[in-house]
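user: can you give me the structure for this one chain? tokens are fine.
assistant: on it. calling the predictor now.
[tool input]
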Amino acid sequence: MTYSVTLADKTFYGSANESNHWWVGSGLVGWYDGVANRVDSVDVPGQHGSFTPQQVLLSGRHMTFECAIEFSTSAEAEASGVDWLASLSAMEGFDFSVTDAGSTKSARCWIEPGQVVLSKRISEKVWKYSIPLFAPDPLKYGALETVRKGASYVVSGGLQYSLQYPLTYGDVAAAALSGYVQLFNSGTADVYPMWRVGGPITLGFQILSDDYVVRFDRALLVNEEVYLGPEAGGRALLRDESGAITDVSVSLTQANWASVPKQGQRGYIFSPIGVATGGSFVEATIRDGWF
């Protein structure tokens, strides 16, 4: 079975690897386990038991990665291993992924608050480490999938006039909307897509799915893009032609986000409020999510 762990920009393997001295040590604790739940439990006055919780939420994921590093020389081990692992404590989040039985899942991690990376030299060229990790988001995610469409709202396919009688039935193009986006999730947890919309679009736009509405009331100029979604903290971030980022959440007048259900799918309609022209587009990115 192929087994590897990628921590920030380094990959550790399940056994010694001739082309890469980074390798997995004694194991990974907490990755395959569940996480603690958070339940607001209120006792029933004067009776046994508690009221039924209104909602069950999950806490962040706590893990410990035990690994060892073998280098060509003692000096290399000191310079490359110790310094790099110590620097993890100062990183503002890094990617942590595990490839197991042909499947790769990842999480965004930090060094466990209040904890430090422990190191122990077990030979001249080999160091062993215990790395405490904390993932605020308890889910594990699959590969990033992207769907991009033109932003203009155009209906195509279906019947065309004038009709000639008698009608004949055959292979008729299905009606379609240019701004229709369908997303899939094969994981075990509901997930939310991240949206990227590029101008020029006058007045703004809506993203619709069933009774869910996301509305952005601001024009987008040529080469302006706005990023929005729950993963952005429920905010809308604008990137202008120079690359500068501005928070324009004040223009996000409705933010009723629609998730893609576990082992399911959901369709979204992108609808410009004004006119979408030129190279305007809508792009959705999503990753399968697992508990």
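assistant: here you go. The chain is about 5% helix and 45% strand. Residues 50 and 239 are 49 Å apart (CA to CA).
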